[in-house]
Design a protein that fits this description.
It contains seven helices and four strands, in the order ααααβαββαβα. It is an alpha+beta fold and 171 residues long. It has two domains: 64 residues, Orthogonal Bundle (Arc Repressor Mutant, subunit A); 83 residues, Alpha-Beta Plaits (2-Layer Sandwich). Strands 2-3-1-4 form a four-stranded antiparallel beta sheet.
Length: 171
């Protein structure tokens, strides 16, 4: 059986991340609006060294962007669902057509391409049950690539773990 601690060390080493890099990532994931001065204090670096590390993480695409965490209910979004999608054919074109079409839907917030019985998991947010039904019937299951669709409602989004915080704990 593989040791999870060793796996995380290998991931960090492969990405050339040290404790300070992981600390920077964790702090920015917690609050992407930290000033460079505040970030430097948190990770124990000078401001210039901290900025250099952040820029290096951005250049290497380890830091892909900075995002606002918006509360969906404040916008009138009352339902979240995870849709399990199976495609009829498993050709590259079928996968690309479905992926391209679904990713641009405004209700879609995450798309995962999988190996196994399910080809995609699609995480959606909608106003209400009617909106969900319209999205599922008219825009997702109506896609010619789709052979099977199951939808599960999300009652609670309990936790979001991030790899860098986990890696940092293991270093």
């Amino acid at each position: 059986m593989t040791n999870p601690t060793n796996q995380m060390r290998k991931i960090a080493a492969a990405a050339s991340l040290d404790r300070i890099d992981c600390g920077i990532l964790a702090a920015l994931q917690e609050n992407a609006r930290l000033s460079n001065k505040e970030l430097a204090i948190r990770v124990g670096l000078s401001q210039s060294s901290c900025l250099e590390r952040v820029r290096r993480l951005e250049a290497r695409k380890v830091l892909r962007g900075y995002h606002a965490d918006v509360d969906p209910t404040a916008l009138g979004i009352r339902l979240e669902a995870i849709c399990s999608v199976r495609l009829g054919l498993h050709s590259r074109d079928e996968f690309e057509h479905f992926f391209s079409a679904v990713c641009v839907l405004p209700e879609v917030i995450d798309v995962y391409e999988l190996a196994g019985a399910t080809d995609y998991l699609v995480h959606v947010v909608v106003r209400d049950a009617d909106h969900l039904r319209e999205l599922m019937h008219d825009r997702i299951s109506a896609r010619p690539e789709v052979s099977h669709l199951e939808t599960a409602l999300v009652f609670r989004h309990a936790a979001r773990k991030t790899l860098p915080q986990y890696v940092e704990d293991e270093l």
